[in-house]
Write a sequence for this structure.
């Protein structure tokens, strides 16, 4: 369906910023609540039944675990921190949980303080792992094991283990969802698509992109998918610090510069925050339910799930933070008790210095058809939370 032409002045203003490369430098304002009133998943402090990591408190012997998280501006990190803290404390460990609010130097200082205060193990979800190499070396020299959480710690031999979701699998799942919903293998139609990929300083973002493009690149080559902006490489589509604001600006630029006379059919985004930004841009451009594009995401945040129900986001990748926290907590417990933790990948995660032994949790695509079965019946969110 054709849309009305957007104003010329808006077009000039927006297109002028299109050539800014991959991502802006400022953290976007998000819909995620503050830590003290976050709408966390149902029974957020409890791990899934599988494993029962916190069922039998261990003899912690006064051991202390430092947990360094990147930001509270995204709901998922609030939930990750809360889940891990609850499970570690249930095992008898003292927990120092810190959020750096996407300030790289603040995270360095927090980890330095954890080392100085006698942490026996560090769990780090990095903002920019390249900035942590020296402080990680300090931890290694002090004999403190490090577990990378969700984001791989690059360029260091100080990291012992890695707990994450299958990040390439996340991209593959998003790509296959688009492939199936648009029947790309069989259709004779052409669909327009624009890409919103993750932060260039996050190894997960690169792996997600690789998984996504393994599925979609053949359709771009064939012409079944058309990216009118021409921005399909990772460098052209990455968004620094996973900024929602930058995603919205990019989408506004694409719509005014390339889609004034033709609808955008697919917003391939790597994060629910990007989907929120695209939603705002699409609404501003006059899109309605009649021509709303397929919009992807990742993390199945509460707001994203509500948007899936209402139709303004098509799908997300559900990553049960309770399960990831459970696996990481078991790693911490094993390391502190001199045992070998559970590992299911010893090949995929090369951080440029070593291949880091890892445990990968499986991501699941959710949409309007299966969110009740996976998210509600799984106890992650309640119907009441989704109805608020």
């Amino acid at each position: 369906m054709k849309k009305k032409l957007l104003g010329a002045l808006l077009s000039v203003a927006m297109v002028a910023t299109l050539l800014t490369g991959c991502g802006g430098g400022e953290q976007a304002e998000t819909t995620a609540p503050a830590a003290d009133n976050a709408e966390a998943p149902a029974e957020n402090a409890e791990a899934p039944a599988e494993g029962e990591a916190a069922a039998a408190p261990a003899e912690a012997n006064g051991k202390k675990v430092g947990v360094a998280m990147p930001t509270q501006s995204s709901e998922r990190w609030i939930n990750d921190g809360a889940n891990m803290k609850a499970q570690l404390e249930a095992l008898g460990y003292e927990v120092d949980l810190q959020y750096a609010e996407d300030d790289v130097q603040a995270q360095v200082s927090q980890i330095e303080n954890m080392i100085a205060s006698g942490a026996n193990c560090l769990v780090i979800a990095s903002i920019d792992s390249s900035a942590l190499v020296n402080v990680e070396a300090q931890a290694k020299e002090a004999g403190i094991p490090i577990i990378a959480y969700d984001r791989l710690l690059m360029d260091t031999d100080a990291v012992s283990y890695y707990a994450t979701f299958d990040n390439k699998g996340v991209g593959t799942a998003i790509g296959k969802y688009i492939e199936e919903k648009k029947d790309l293998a069989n259709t004779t139609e052409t669909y327009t698509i624009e890409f919103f990929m993750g932060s260039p300083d996050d190894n997960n973002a690169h792996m997600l992109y690789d998984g996504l493009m393994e599925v979609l690149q053949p359709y771009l080559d064939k012409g079944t998918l058309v990216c009118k902006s021409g921005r399909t490489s990772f460098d052209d589509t990455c968004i620094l610090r996973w900024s929602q604001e930058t995603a919205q600006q990019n989408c506004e630029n694409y719509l005014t510069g390339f889609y004034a006379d033709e609808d955008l059919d697919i917003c391939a985004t790597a994060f629910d925050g990007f989907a929120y930004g695209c939603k705002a841009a699409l609404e501003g451009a006059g899109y309605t339910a009649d021509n709303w594009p397929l919009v992807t995401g990742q993390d199945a945040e509460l707001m994203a799930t509500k948007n899936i129900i209402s139709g303004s986001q098509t799908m997300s990748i559900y990553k049960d933070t309770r399960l990831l926290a459970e696996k990481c907590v078991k790693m911490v417990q094993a390391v502190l008790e001199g045992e070998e933790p559970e590992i299911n990948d010893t090949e995929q995660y090369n951080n440029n210095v070593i291949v880091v032994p890892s445990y990968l949790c499986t991501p699941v695509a959710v949409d309007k058809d299966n969110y009740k079965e996976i998210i509600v019946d799984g106890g992650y969110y309640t119907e009441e939370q989704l109805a608020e």
